[in-house]
Design brief:
By secondary structure, the protein is α/β, with parallel strands linked by helices. The protein has helices spanning about 20-30, 65-70, 105-115, 120-130, 145-160, 175-190, 205-210, 230-240, and strands spanning about 5-15, 35-50, 50-55, 80-85, 85-90, 165-170, 195-200, 215-220, 220-225, 250-255, 260-265, 275, 280-305, 310-315, 325-335, 345-355, 360-375. It has two domains: about 5-235, Rossmann fold (3-Layer(aba) Sandwich), CATH 3.40.50; about 255-375, abc- transporter (atp binding component) like domain (Coagulation Factor XIII, Chain A, domain 1, Distorted Sandwich), CATH 2.70.50.60. Helix content is about 25%, strand content about 40%.
């Protein structure tokens, strides 16, 4: 596929002043009264037609700054951005709108801003209103709209501007669930027709579901560019190790106060299992060791499907089973019925404080083991979740 966007060695630095008057004093005195903050440094990537790239990272990592440079809202200090075709999208909610104008008037204004001709705007106005589901309110001033209504209008206008590349910066998190699903269906169709999408989000499931490739930013630098699952694992490692001495490894991360040493899967009678039928019971055993006494430890588990999607997770804090540990020990997660659809699932284990491994992580063991689920011939169903259903006609 031909490239839609080429970014090479992009750098953006901001000048920061402690007080507003320092800017004037610096100009008058010629003495520096500011500090420089590098938001982006040596960012390079290429986005092809029909490809979705997600950009992830902790707050302040440079994600929104990167999208604003690509959208020409900000000018980079150095580096190049080569755009091959029209780029539109959703950055900060309400960008390009005038609150005192009606929704219909904002379609005309924003459409012009997105390089649509007057004829294109007139021809697509009703389609935009229909997609945004705003017909009863379209002649009301935009300042009376909720944030969700504003997002719906912005998305509808941007998608009907026939872009080659679409930028999204968290804006889709504003709308209701039904409209979000409608947007994602539209984006899937856009991609299938050769459109490229650059997507900034903190929703890791959406990143896994949508992305062909993921760029992980850390403090304005490229930490990783590649497969979604590996990028998300590295992102979790960065978040979990923030303020800790531990660092990520190829199979996990944590500060090392507790570490897992083994994992094995059995049926309730202790017989080893790697292949089970849907709905069958399953026991996931683990052993660990601790270099010191640690109180109130949370042991957790996350099951993921073959695409890396989170299928089910729980932990000792949620199950009201916290443990004080010292030395070596073992534990077991017991599932009376593994109600999953056919496929391969990976097991990820965690030892941490609190309800999430992002608080104080002792050890996250990524892809510790796996097992395969076969369809139960007595209960055939579609999807990845087995639910008990009854039909009366």
């Amino acid at each position: 596929m031909p490239p839609v966007l080429d970014v090479e060695k992009l750098r953006k630095t901001f000048t920061c002043y402690t007080r507003t008057r320092d800017r004037v004093l610096e100009f008058l005195s010629g003495q520096s009264r500011h500090r420089s903050f590098t938001a982006l440094d040596a960012i390079s990537f290429s986005l092809a037609s029909g490809q979705i790239m997600s950009i992830i990272g902790e707050n302040g990592s440079g994600k929104s700054t990167l999208l604003k440079c690509i959208a020409q809202v900000l000018l980079p200090d150095s580096g190049t951005i080569k755009r091959h075709g029209k780029i539109t999208g959703l950055l900060e909610l309400g960008t390009g709108f005038i609150p005192n104008l009606s929704g219909r008037e904002n379609i005309a204004f924003n459409g012009t801003f997105l390089q649509m001709s007057a004829q294109d705007i007139a021809r697509r106005e009703e389609a935009i209103i229909d997609f945004a589901e705003l017909a009863p309110f379209i002649d009301e001033p935009l300042k009376s709209y909720s944030s969700g209504m504003t997002m719906r209008l912005a998305f509808a206008i941007a998608m009907h501007a026939d872009p080659q590349c679409f930028l999204i910066d968290e804006a889709l998190s504003v709308g209701d669930t039904g409209f979000q699903q409608k947007c994602f269906q539209k984006l899937s169709s856009f991609k299938a027709n050769g459109g490229a999408i650059l997507f900034v989000s903190h929703d890791m499931n959406a990143v896994k579901l949508l992305s062909d490739t993921v760029l992980l930013l850390a403090h304005g630098h490229m930490n990783y560019l590649g497969q979604p699952e590996e990028a998300i694992n590295r992102y979790n490692a960065l978040a979990a190790s923030h303020g800790q001495s531990g660092s990520a490894t190829s199979t996990g991360y944590g500060n090392g106060a507790i570490s897992f040493t083994s994992v094995h899967i059995t049926d309730p009678d202790g017989n080893p299992q790697s292949l089970i039928r849907s709905g069958a019971p399953l026991c996931i055993h683990f052993t660990y060791k601790s270099s010191q006494k640690v109180e109130h430890v949370t042991f957790g588990i996350m099951l993921r499907d073959r695409f890396g999607q989170d299928v089910f997770g729980t932990n000792g804090a949620l199950l009201h089973t916290l443990k004080d540990v010292e030395g070596e020990g073992h534990g077991c997660f017991t599932f009376p019925a593994m109600n999953l659809g056919q496929g391969t699932y990976t097991i990820n284990l965690a030892a941490h404080q609190g309800t999430t491994h992002l608080e104080t992580c002792y050890h996250w063991w990524d892809r510790a083991s796996s097992f395969e689920v076969l369809q139960d011939t007595n209960y055939i169903f579609s999807g990845h979740t087995r639910l008990e259903a009854h039909l009366d006609v």
